[in-house]
């Protein structure tokens, strides 16, 4: 997440623009100075101010003025260009319709793309100025910094760039907080942008934009009249192989004034395959660090029984059979981020019994299920109705029970306060609690005995898989124990996905999305899914969704964001989703094995050495990450 920057640098790009059409621009001393400044800003902050851009300040002001004039219109007038799927997701959005991390943003906006550009002439001039004279030339400067050639991001990569323009209005705090909702000054929640670069033209008299540095501080990005703010985005992070980072940022408008901004997103060609540039790979250790797994076509199957048989032997890494399993784990984590687990030692009868009792619970009436309704007061534990869980702003078509390792009062101070509480277990079916607790203990590998458990010798499944992964990454099986995951937190989601005939209906063809595309946020996940329905899909490098069909008796295992961070990007947490287009109701029980709740997660030294010597990620405290996800991942009716 960039570095521990405290301010946003200002770069005068006029020497670059003066030579931008000269093939020998890289030899000019003035250009070289700008290129060095761009490179430093992209490495250290991911944000910079753009001065000397050549766009008249009068035009910049006129664009903001006409934007304000539009947002001053009555809703009825603005809704004449309402954004809809039928309009290609172009047009006007009302306040609260844009969602970031599950929370409605306090903004209204017009979304414009290449194919819908029919706005006022001043907006047209603004677009042309930014596109032709500014964004492409800044990218030429960045290309010089990264590659030595100014044209690396043209032709098949961005010779015909797609673009997006968001014309945004943020109500003042007195308007947005009409119901005294504490968080309602969040104009746009924390996020990174997804293209190459973004150019921001914001009101001159309100400081609302903030960028997050490596220490987690939110650094204000105050407006400077006549200057644009530029930030790099996810696609440039991939092209640069992590040399440049797309930095988290947000908008907090706690001013009483209405604020407007225009954000121009400069993208690659629409059909571009984005991957690390060869020269950036060589400059960052020789391998691709930023990737979405590989172009895998199937999910590998790994029998871990030989690993489990040696898991308590300090010399397990010297055993040839263990080494074979470790090699398979390493390959699966690098190529797919997903694998099936066989030979895990958990009785198939218990696996099936867990799914059966889950079906029984979800067959109950809503009134019965709502007796354990999830609320913030319950520590975000309990039952969620269909549509209450939100992924990327879209309600998921599933119902669920969420359970967490129980946190006693004041155990972690303010860090753990939102998660304090006991799990809510239903009284019906009668065996539900005891069966789930037994199952969780086997997945976790907890070695304490609880009277209701049938098994006295508990299997160390998740911890032992992590020992195998630790051997692959570090050479020591105990790297993820002690202060990292010696007292692992865990999360269990017991989920039911309605069949397509219930969730869909003719009018809503998209409602088979049981869970939208996402990555998991812990170390690893074990998924126990119904044997007769294929719904889980994993996305490969080419953007294809690869099915992960159930294999009776086997778990699906995938790695999460915290393991990606520990590995410094050697392992990738892979996008996945659930599409239940079967007429049958589907259940699964997903077990998330995490670090210690208060663990400080950062790249391991050995992984930094293996990836070129530079940490690609900053430090994150697991509990903060979890609380942020949980508190924004669902909505209540």
UniProtKB/TrEMBL annotation:
Q: Which domain of life is it from?
A: Eukaryota
Q: Which GO terms fall under molecular function for this chain's record?
A: 2-oxoglutarate-dependent dioxygenase activity; metal ion binding
Where, per UniProt, does this protein localize?
Cytoplasm, Cytosol
State if Nuclease is listed as a keyword: no
Q: Which UniProt keywords apply?
A: Cytoplasm, Dioxygenase, Iron, Metal-binding, Oxidoreductase
Q: Which InterPro entries match?
A: DIOX_N, IPNS-like_FE2OG_OXY, IPNS-like_sf, Iron_ascorbate_oxido_reductase, Oxoglu/Fe-dep_dioxygenase_dom
Q: Which Gene3D superfamilies match?
A: B-lactam Antibiotic, Isopenicillin N Synthase, Chain (2.60.120.330)
Entries under Pfam families matching the protein: 2OG-FeII_Oxy (PF03171), DIOX_N (PF14226)
Q: GO cellular-component terms in the record? A: cytosol
| Catalysed reaction equations from the record | L-homoarginine + 2-oxoglutarate + O2 = 6-hydroxy-L-homoarginine + succinate + CO2
Domain Fe2OG dioxygenase, residue spans: 160-268, 488-595
Q: Which family does it belong to?
A: Belongs to the iron/ascorbate-dependent oxidoreductase family.
Alphabetical list of PANTHER family matching this protein: 2-OXOGLUTARATE (2OG) AND FE(II)-DEPENDENT OXYGENASE SUPERFAMILY PROTEIN-RELATED (PTHR47990)
The name this protein goes by in its record:
Fe2OG dioxygenase domain-containing protein
Q: Species name for this entry?
A: Acer yangbiense
